[in-house]
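re: ur msg from earlier - yeah i can do the protoporphyrin IX containing FE complex, just paste it... oh wait u already did. ok heres what im feeding in:
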Amino acid sequence: MQAPLTNRDYNPLSKLLHWLMALVIIVAWGVGYYGGAMLHYGVSDGETAQKIWAITLHKSIATTTLFLIVARLLWRASHRPPALADMPKIMEHLTHLGHGALYFLMVAVPLSGWANSSSAGYPIPVAGLFTIPGLVSKTPELTPYLVWTHWFLSWALGVTVVGHMLFALKHHFIDKDSTLRSMMLGKKA
Ligand code: HEM
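and the outut:
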């Protein structure tokens, strides 16, 4: 683990990967919630077709995070982040815990979705361009457990992302430090 930089600015590729990932996660979450929780199979032919459309779109958007997270972890391993703003030790620990949870969930959520869809034997599209093979072989008896796992992890990710956003806003508007500015594209902290 490299020591953090004292300069408060993130490098441009870290910023780009951060905001691209944020955008894809928020859109994938919304479309996943619409297809997974708000629409139900068998209510009517129209609703079944709409659910299949929404879940296919959800998968096509969300699978891109698998590629983004690999790029992000490789970049992060070779580039030091700036030092955290001054804060009490307990807040520093909580910040590291929150960032660790975000990295864990950014890997676990797409993997659980990939496993759930492949266990049901469905194709896994990526950005509407190509499909990737199943993560597990077709095992429909496992699907309900994997759907539940994906549901649980995607809600944990949703709550963690909202907490992360609230803390960023607290830094900016209450603590008035450079934390949020340090992640802004095209700006110096
Ligand atoms: C960052 C990535 C992802 C996020 C944030 C995400 C989020 C969500 C959310 C919020 C739901 C609705 C849960 C509910 O019922 O309340 C959902 C459902 C679903 N997701 Fe994902 N997901 C991601 C990745 C994936 C991937 C990569 C796949 C498959 C390749 C996938 C497949 C599915 C399927 C099939 C459902 C519907 C489950 C059901 O109710 O039958 N997800 N996702």
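cool cool. Residues 25, 28-29, 32-33, 36-37, 55, 58-59, 62-63, 65, 109-110, 113-114, 116-117, 124, 147, 150-151, 154, 157 surround protoporphyrin IX containing FE (CB under 6 Å). ping me if u need the other ligands too
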